[in-house]
Q: What sequence folds into this?
């Protein structure tokens, strides 16, 4: 599973984070050895953070605080960046971008453990999204990596 997840992370451009996920990642990854593939990629990559409460300078190197409305800032980033932007976790940020159609691909890791509680990626607020499955992989640990695109989007082309 780590190899497959690492491939996805290594291929992207900048990373997008909401405040909570950024805080969790920033408390761990800068302190890991760059011999660790995830640490090296995460520490070197440009990180964009959507937050109304954080202030610059941000503690984790290569981190930039998005200014203004998150959806508008992400739309501008998508116009500027020549590589894909990657969101790790950050469910609240994802939910804020969905109505603006700013997410081109969802890569969901479905674990074989059902909690029955906790934060949900897709809420009961009446928001509707049609997604089309374009790829699945099952890891040796039984985790299903499902890749979806919005229903009206063409399937991604291999690089």
A:
């Amino acid at each position: 599973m780590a190899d497959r997840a690492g491939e996805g992370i290594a291929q992207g451009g900048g990373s997008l984070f909401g405040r909570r996920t950024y805080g969790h990642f920033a408390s761990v990854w800068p302190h890991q050895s760059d011999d660790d593939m995830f640490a090296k990629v995460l520490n070197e990559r440009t990180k964009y953070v959507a937050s109304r409460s954080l202030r610059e300078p941000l503690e984790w190197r290569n981190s930039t605080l998005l200014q203004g409305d998150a959806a508008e800032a992400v739309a501008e980033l998508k116009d500027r960046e020549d590589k894909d932007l990657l969101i790790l976790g950050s469910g609240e940020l994802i939910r804020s971008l969905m109505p603006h159609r700013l997410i081109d691909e969802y890569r969901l890791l479905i674990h074989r453990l059902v909690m029955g509680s906790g934060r949900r990626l897709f809420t009961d607020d009446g928001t509707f999204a049609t997604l089309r499955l374009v790829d699945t992989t099952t890891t040796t640990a039984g985790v299903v990596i499902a890749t979806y695109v919005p229903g009206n989007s063409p399937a991604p082309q291999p690089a």
Remarks:
- The first strand starts at residue 15 and ends at 18.
